[in-house]
Write a structure and sequence with these properties.
Blueprint lengths: L5 E5 L10 E6 L12 E6 L2 E7 L14 H10 L4 E10 L9 E3 L2 E4 L27 H13 L5 E2 L2 E4 L8 H9 L2 E5 L5 H7 L3 E11 L8 H29 L1
Parallel strand pairs: 1-4, 1-5, 5-11, 6-8, 7-9, 9-10
Antiparallel strand pairs: 2-3, 3-4, 5-10, 6-11
The chain binds hypoxanthine.
């Protein structure tokens, strides 16, 4: 088994890791089928990590069709301990403007019809995991510390609302999400986070703010997405690099 214990789950805008040296590409099978892409063991700035593209190699797997169970099972089987999940989001409010990064501390799951547990009493005995705080406290703290030490902006906290997609939201849906206290709206945060907890992985989501939520900007939503994707992607890459260099100094 490799020594790589950190995985990056790349989402929209991060299907590959820029400038990484590819050490190994593994086509895995799990009891739930194959993951959405080969698991790549890569070297970034002298650090070995796993990279997995959530939407597939060519970004053609819709959020509701992603095999979240296979992805998380594959990472767990390879000995991964920490998962940094990158999730593109639309944002409500001014705390985390488009082009910047947020680190959600809460989650509301609005998705439906997804295979959302390993413990369905059929494949594995029933267990009710504690999901009070859906993201790893320790990994969140480490990311915040790495960001602070490298002078990077990372908005601490906020609720991630996972919507079904693949369409974007209506104005009324965004109003409801705002009333629910959601700051980050994305389509891939659930059931991924819960599955990671079921496998006892330390999992944190880094939200790449790429647009203001539907109806909350004077600019068209796709135009906004395009305008902010590069800045958010670059910020995410910098954050992961800072985290890895921080980890290796410890
Ligand atoms: N809504 C849902 N998912 C998203 C959005 C959004 O506005 N932007 C990027 N992913």
């Amino acid at each position: 088994m490799s020594r790589a214990t950190i995985a990056i789950l790349g989402g929209t805008g991060v299907e590959n890791w820029p400038g990484a040296e590819l050490l190994e590409s593994r086509h895995l099978e799990t009891p739930f089928g194959p993951p959405t892409a080969p698991l790549q063991r890569i070297a970034i700035a002298g650090h070995e990590v796993w990279f997995l593209s959530r939407h597939g190699v060519g970004h053609d797997i819709a959020p509701h069709r992603i095999n979240y169970r296979a992805n998380i099972a594959a990472l767990a089987a390879e000995g991964v301990e920490q998962v940094i999940a990158l999730n593109a989001v639309g944002v409500i409010g001014t705390e985390c403007p488009p082009g910047t990064l947020g680190l959600p501390d809460q989650l509301i799951d609005y998705t439906w019809g997804r295979d959302s547990t390993f413990f369905d009493g059929v494949d594995a005995p029933l267990q009710h995991i504690d999901f009070t705080d859906p993201y790893s406290t320790q990994l969140r703290a480490q990311l915040l510390q790495a960001a602070a030490e490298h002078g990077l902006r990372l908005v601490d906290g906020g609720t991630y609302g996972a919507t079904q997609g693949p369409r974007l939201e209506t104005r009324a849906e965004v109003d409801r999400l705002a009333r629910d206290g959601v700051r980050y709206i994305g389509m891939t945060g659930a059931p991924e986070a819960a599955l990671a907890r079921e496998k006892a992985l330390d999992y944190a989501s880094v939200a790449l703010a790429v647009n203001a939520a539907a109806g909350r900007s004077a600019v068209g939503i796709h135009e906004e997405l395009e305008m902010n994707m590069n800045a958010a992607r670059e910020a995410a890459v910098e954050l992961v690099l800072s985290f890895l260099s921080w980890v290796s100094k410890k």
